[in-house]
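F.,

This is the one I mentioned.
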């Protein structure tokens, strides 16, 4: 669903998709403002992550201020676009995870992982509700095999270095993330790409924990793939929700035989 006004046939008022009013210049400006805010926050955050690698200076204040603000800005954009509530919830749970992981320490890490897990559950609910696109069976099988290999590899990488009480939660979270990435294919290429990027982002984190060789500025690549994942998932969900809403409005506006006869009388 685009940010443009959508009107039901025969109606003088803007239509509602997802319970939110869509249309109007003021609404359009608000949608645009949220999109620009998210883009500026993402640019500032990624730049702050590159500064130490480029100049050796620290940009931690900018990094720590922008990271928790990314997902609320994207959630506001999704809400104003008439996005389903589970989408907004998934993004806000992402904000909770981002914030808690900045705190540091095992309790905050577990709480942050639980927040991200709740976001994945929100996405799974959306994919089950909205998913209509089906890729060829062979393609799905190949992708599923690749994702399963990535899950097993990630758990194997992390397992030796994890405390005993952390192994179960980390393995369960990784499995949930893998399931979300695979289910995202039901919503088409945007959501499918978002699921793949989310999986890639967490795999990059795993390689860092396992002390594998890292690219320059590894946090930059982690946040680039993570931010891209959440954005692609948001676009995919909004597109599918908008198309579903348009189908409902179109179906409601088609007159039955009796109504057509009365109009022609």
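My design for it:
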């Amino acid at each position: 669903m685009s940010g443009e006004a959508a009107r039901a046939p025969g109606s003088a008022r803007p239509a509602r998709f997802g319970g939110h009013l869509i249309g109007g210049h003021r609404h359009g400006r608000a949608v645009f403002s949220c999109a620009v805010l998210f883009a500026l926050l993402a640019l500032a955050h990624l730049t702050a992550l590159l500064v130490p690698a480029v100049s050796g200076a620290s940009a931690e204040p900018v990094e720590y201020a922008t990271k928790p603000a990314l997902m609320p800005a994207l959630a506001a954009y999704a809400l104003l676009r008439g996005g389903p509530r589970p989408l907004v919830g998934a993004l806000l749970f992402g904000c909770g995870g981002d914030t808690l992981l900045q705190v540091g320490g095992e309790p905050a890490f577990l709480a942050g992982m639980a927040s991200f897990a709740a976001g994945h559950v929100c996405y799974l609910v959306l994919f089950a509700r909205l998913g209509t696109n089906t890729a060829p069976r062979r393609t799905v099988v190949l992708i599923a095999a690749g994702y399963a290999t990535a899950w097993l590899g990630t758990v194997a990488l992390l397992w030796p270095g994890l405390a005993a009480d952390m192994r179960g939660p980390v393995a369960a979270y990784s499995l949930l993330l893998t399931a979300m990435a695979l289910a995202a294919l039901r919503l088409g290429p945007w959501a499918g790409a978002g699921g793949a990027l989310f999986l890639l982002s967490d795999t990059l984190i795993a390689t860092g924990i396992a002390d594998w060789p890292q690219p320059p500025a590894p946090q930059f690549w982690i946040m680039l793939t993570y931010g891209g994942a959440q954005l692609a998932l948001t676009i995919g969900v909004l597109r599918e929700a908008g198309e579903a809403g348009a189908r409902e409005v179109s179906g409601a506006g088609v007159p039955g035989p009796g109504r057509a006869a009365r109009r022609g009388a």
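The CA atoms of residues 130 and 240 lie 7 Å apart.

Talk soon.
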